[in-house]
Amino acid sequence: MSGSTSRQQAIAAVTNYQPISPPLNFAKTPSSEFYGSNVFGLTEMQKRLPKQVFKSLKRTIEKGEKLDCSLADTVANAIKAWAIEKGATHYAHVFYPLTGLTAEKHDSFLVPDGNGGAVAEFSGSALIQGEPDASSFPSGGIRATFEARGYTAWDVTSPAYILENPNGTTLCIPTAFVSWTGEALDKKTPLLRSMQAINVQAQRILKLFGHVDGALVASTAGPEQEYFLIDRNFYFARPDLYTAGRTLFGAKPPKGQELEDHYFGAIPERVLAFMLEAEHELFKLGVPIKTRHNEVAPAQYEVAPIFETANLATDHQQLIMVTLRRVAEKYGMACLLHEKPFAGVNGSGKHVNWSLGSSSQGNLLDPGHTPHANMQFLVFCAAVIRAVHKYASLLRAVVAHAGNDHRLGANEAPPAIISVFLGDQLTDVFEQIKAGGAKSSKGQGTLTVGVDVLPPLPKDAGDRNRTSPFAFTGNRFEFRAVGSSQSIAGPLVAMNTIVSESLDYCATVLEKATGGDVAKLPGAVQTLLKEIYDKHGAIVFNGDNYAEAWHQEAAKRGLPNFKTTVDSLPTLGTPEIIELFEKYHVLSKRETESRMDIYLEQYIKTINVEAKLTVEISKTMIFPAAIRYQGELATTCANLKAIGYTFDTDTLDKVTALVKELQDTTAALEKIAAHHGGSGLLEEATYYSTKVVPAMLTVRKAADELEGIVADDHWPLPTYQEMLFIK
Ligand code: ADP
Ligand code: MG
Questions:
Q1: Is 500 exposed, middle or buried (0-12, 13-18, 19+ CB in 10 A)?
Q2: Which one of 549, 605, 659, 699 has the fewest beta carbons within 10 angstroms of its own beta carbon?
């Protein structure tokens, strides 16, 4: 089958597609009836566990108290009974290795009974601990072969759930994944540690303001996930897409996103059907999906849940990614989570909304109507400003990976320079503080639309700023630099830890200044806030982050601007960062260093695969198409010449030149990619970033130009136009 035949077939398949899923009926079964039905949450626990056991678990989940392991057998029995009622044959410890993906190892409940039969068994120890081996996951040297054991440990704060499959269901237990030596091999362990750290420091601040109930302060997260959907037939006709997750070739289509007619537009029927089923599946898993809409680029969409505590939000985020991918298949589509599947149109990010809250104090980043008078809020807010300024490089490093290089630092939203958007109202309050004390907050007021039948709208105190990588959005901060394919754990670990350090600093200063005397608090807070804003106000920027002028201004302010993954990752190895993570018991030196190595290695592997694919596609798909067309043109020219026509050979000349360019650049890339770039990981990664990536682009340039000339019926790859617009 020639390339173009597969394209024709793909197009026919798209236009004739029939869904394979039976239709859902929300009138018959409203969402509220099945929401959480596949989760062993508090309701199910209360129903099935003895009172004392339930109470104890609840204290661990809600207050962060130490887990009582003696309860494990009772809990395991209850979970088993529940899971078997739900048709489960197996259980799986689910964990989150440093690849950023979700991993699971399934075990059957069945054990031989010694009489030739078998019984379903699930002990407390099987619930609490697993040993999946899983030694092929990256450990950055922590798991040398002689100490290769890896354990999964039950995380009671993230509820067990049932994963459905047409042929049976599996009980899934979220776990942390650690080595024989107790070192973290995953994304969850440091996240839980960082949540513990921030609680300790936040309590100190709350205590200064007289809140001593000790209600757990948890970091909360609400991640907005952007993704592309294209027809699966196109997907499988593109080796670059199904192997590397992004197109390595593809000329710009005549129409891209410039008309902005897709953004928030009516959702195509097949896509909406997919969304409804994906949400249906996620509801069953207790993932509180809230919003959906079309995004800016054609074929791009977004889904966002209601925020939850950071750990749960992270596990749910992983489930969202898995579910989007799985359900898309049923509707004949492929869900692309890569940061930049298509050059020339917007890439995909994952905006991570972050805040702190407790059951008694509510949201600690809620300014109220008069932020200038809300000292407690201002301390928390200033702590974040200070943290982001002090550790901007760390925030950049935790979103660094090959896919995100196409967004950050590469003419796309948001830039690689980390800054904070505060909005008019808060900036004004901090400016007043700087000048000696805050006396007022700019009002909120109402908007008059000028149409009597429309209601007056309460006006928000601050506008939005879509270009900022770290924006205050009313009662939380939104970290927008996170990539669409990334686990949100890394960014959350970083935010929790840097803010812990800042709260620690603030608490220490205030404790010392007041010496326990509440009357001294307002003065001490004013002094602290002024000092922080004087020193760290440079991170605040409310303007257009895309403007060239900002890049110059940011440089003047001394803000770091790490353009690539390779520029950013070494931050993880600096003494400042290693000490930071050590001090708050989030990561040991070895754990931090191993992470840097793993991420560098991942970068190298990713680019290496992309380079090999570029060579393969260039040689075996594009070159053959180009010379076939060249042959046709040459034959035509020879025929015309034979009958005495005068004609010009412009197209043939152009094709010939481009074929040569394609061959030369491909040969050059092959040579460059085969060469070893350096002794250490950093040198090697630098080589890939500075030599291999540009060499790939030269091949692409020649190929994309050929795409604009070669006869369409010869072209082997589905085009951008087809993939983005045929739905
Ligand atoms: P927008 O696109 O306007 O930024 P969305 O509704 O798409 O807004 O997403 C906002 C996200 O922020 C949601 O996931 C929401 O639950 C989350 N969020 C709201 N309040 C908080 C909070 N206190 N902590 C963390 N996330 C929050
Ligand atoms: Mg949004």
A1: buried
A2: 549
As a whole number of angstroms, the distance between CA 204 and CA 336 comes to 44
DSSP string, 227-240: EEEEEHHHHHT-HH
pTM for the whole structure? 0.95
Residue 157 phi/psi, 5-degree rounding, is -80, -10
| Structure letter (DSSP) for residue 334 | E
Q: Tens of pLDDT along 375-428?
A: 999 999 999 999 999 999 999 999 999 999 999 877 677 889 999 999 999 999
Mutate to test the pocket of ligand 1, among 226, 421, 476, 482 (most ligand atoms within 8 A of CB): 476
The pLDDT tens digits of the residues spanning 37-90 come to 999 999 999 999 999 999 999 999 998 899 999 999 999 999 999 999 999 999
CB of residue 295 inside a 6 A radius of ligand 1: no
Q: What is the DSSP letter of 459?
A: P
CB 306 less than 6 A from any atom of ligand 1: yes
Contacts of 503 (CB under 8 A, 6+ apart): 198, 201, 202, 204, 205, 380, 383
* pLDDT at residue 448, as a whole number: 65
**Number of neighbouring beta carbons within 10 Å of residue 166:** 5
Q: Is 600 helix (H, G, I), strand (E, B) or coil?
A: helix
